[in-house]
Design goal:
Layout lengths: L9 H6 L4 H15 L7 H14 L8 E3 L3 H10 L4 E3 L2 H6 L2 H7 L8 E2 L5 H10 L3 H8 L1 H4 L3 E4 L3 H14 L5 E4 L7 H9 L5 E4 L6 H26 L7
Parallel strand pairs: 2-3, 2-4, 4-5, 5-6
Antiparallel strand pairs: 1-6
Helix pairs in contact: 2-3, 3-12, 4-12, 6-12, 7-8, 8-10, 10-11
């Protein structure tokens, strides 16, 4: 008997080509059809849908939390080219500079800051026997007031930011609170959500750097959409509903 030949699955794609954008749009259509999003506003759903797309986990929608002013405050901060402090270099690498510049052309790589690998931060952590992320947040204090703080990795860093908010009056424009893990994770998020500060968070143990990045990208998309609507109004063009 001769060997039976199997048609490679990639042949289906070659027969019916889809670009990367086509695949992304189709993914969003599937999410919209499969996930009940009546509990979210239109703008909140844009962010939740991006998070689901990043994880392929529709259940995660049940854990996403927004403060009432989170999206508006985050968009305003991006439009003002506010600094973005991140708790890991993975987030720093993952944030798209073209997306940021699509909101504010003056964004540069220097506007996205991570101190966790700095020598002085590592030295302090080693001396005190505490995580580097704690000292990285302390070093970032000048950036945090009115900036965007992004956590996808380090719950201790979020705990330290919470302390700074409570004890020093620092008030970030937005805190994206999505550290992942088992130790200090749940309580760090719950403490933040009890504070008077704009936040987008994932309750419970779930989280991760890719999710935090996805929120920044979703906010960029919303900011650009807002700018387009404003421009259309200025030109007396009625937006398509």
């Amino acid at each position: 008997m001769g060997e039976q030949k199997t048609r490679p699955l990639i042949a289906d794609l070659m027969s019916n080509p889809m670009s990367g954008l086509d695949i992304e749009n189709r993914s969003f259509e599937i999410i919209d059809s499969e996930v009940d999003h009546v509990d979210f506003s239109t703008n909140e759903w844009e962010i939740v849908r991006r998070i689901i797309h990043t994880t392929a986990d529709p259940v995660i929608a049940d854990f996403v939390r927004f403060s009432p002013d989170a999206i508006a405050s985050g968009i305003k901060a991006l439009q003002k080219t506010s600094r973005i402090y991140v708790d890991s270099n993975m987030i720093r690498s993952g944030i798209s500079m073209p997306r940021l510049r699509g909101v504010s052309p003056t964004y540069t790589s220097d506007h996205v800051v991570c101190h966790v690998a700095d020598r002085d931060v590592a030295d302090n952590a080693r001396t005190k026997g505490l995580p580097r992320s704690l000292y990285a947040v302390r070093k970032a204090i000048p950036l945090l007031d009115a900036g965007i703080a992004v956590f996808g990795n380090a719950p201790v860093a979020l705990l330290e930011l919470n302390r700074l908010i409570m004890e020093t009056g620092i008030r970030p424009a937005l805190v994206i609170a999505m550290p992942v893990g088992f130790v200090h994770v749940i309580e760090s998020k719950e403490e933040l959500m009890a504070l008077d500060v704009p936040f987008i968070a994932i309750a419970g143990r779930r989280g991760g750097s890719p999710l935090a990045v996805s929120v920044i990208h979703a906010l960029c998309g919303l900011a650009q959409k807002e700018d387009r609507v404003i421009n259309m109004v200025d030109r007396n063009i009625k937006p398509i509903s």
